[in-house]
What we know:
By secondary structure, the protein is of the alpha/beta class. Helices cover 40% and strands 23% of the residues. It has helices at 14-26, 28-32, 52-60, 73-84, 125-135, 159-174, 185-191, 211-226, 229-234, 240-254, and strands at 42-46, 65-70, 93-97, 110-116, 136-147, 153-155, 195-206, 260-271.
Amino acid sequence: MTEKDFSYLHGFSEKEQQRLRKQARFGEHMIYRNLNMSGVSELLEVGCGVGAQSEILLRRFPDLKLTGIDLSTKQMDVAKKLLASTPWATGRYNLKEMDATNMTFAANSFDGAFLCWILEHVPDPIRVLSEVRRVLRPASIVYITEVMNASFFLDPYSPNVWKYWMAFNEYQMAQKGDPFVGAKLGNFLMQLGYRDIQTEVKTWYLDNRSPQLRKDSVEYWTELLLSASDQLVAANYVSAEIVEGMKLEMAKVANDPNAVFYYSFIQASART
C-alpha cells in the first residue's frame, strides 16, 4: 500500500495537523492511565502521524527510544519538525515512512509497541497487528487504543448531529476503515497468538457534575466532527445544511446546563 492508496477521513490540512496535537493532549489523561512502558527500551509507534503521541511517550517514559512509522509524507514532515523542537526528544527517536502492513524491520527489533487511533483507518488491521507481532521480541508489551463509535451519546436530542454522525461512520467504512474496531481488538489479538490479553473500556461520561469539562469536551468534539465535513459534503454523504445544523446543535448542547455527553473507547494490551 502506498500513500496515494490511503484515504484519511480527516484530511491532511495544516488545521487538521494542529487538531491532532490538541487531540493528543486532550485525551492524554485517559489514554495513559494504566499504561506502563517503564520496562521498554526500544518502542515501535505504528501510525505516528504528526508526532503528537510520540512527544507524549518520550516525555512520560524518559528511558525509552522511539521508532515511529507512518505512510504519509505530509504527516511525517510535521512530526520531524515537532520532535526536532522538543528538548526531551533529542537523540531518542527515529521516524520512517513505512507501510505498517509490510514493515521492513527485522524480526525481534523492538521490545514494545504503541498504536493509537490508527487501526480505525486501515483496511486490514489484523495484518498490521501480525506485522507488529513479528517485529517484537518475545514477551514484549503492546498497547492499542481504538474507537468504538457506537457508544456516542448526546443529550438534548440533536437530529442533525445524529445524521452527521451516521454519515461520518458510513463514510469511514466506505473508505475501508472501521469506526467500531475497538470492540474487536480482543478477538484480533487472540487470533494472532498474543498472550496476556487485557481490554479496558475508557469513558467520558459528563453531566452536571463536571460542567466545564462537559462544555470543553463538546466543543472539542465539534472540532473533531467538522474535521471531516469537507470530505463528507464533497462525497454527498451530508448536505451543507446538515453541517450547519450540526454546528448549531453542538453549540446549544455545549451551553445547555443539563446536557449529557458520553463516549467510550477501548484500550487493549497484550504480550507476544
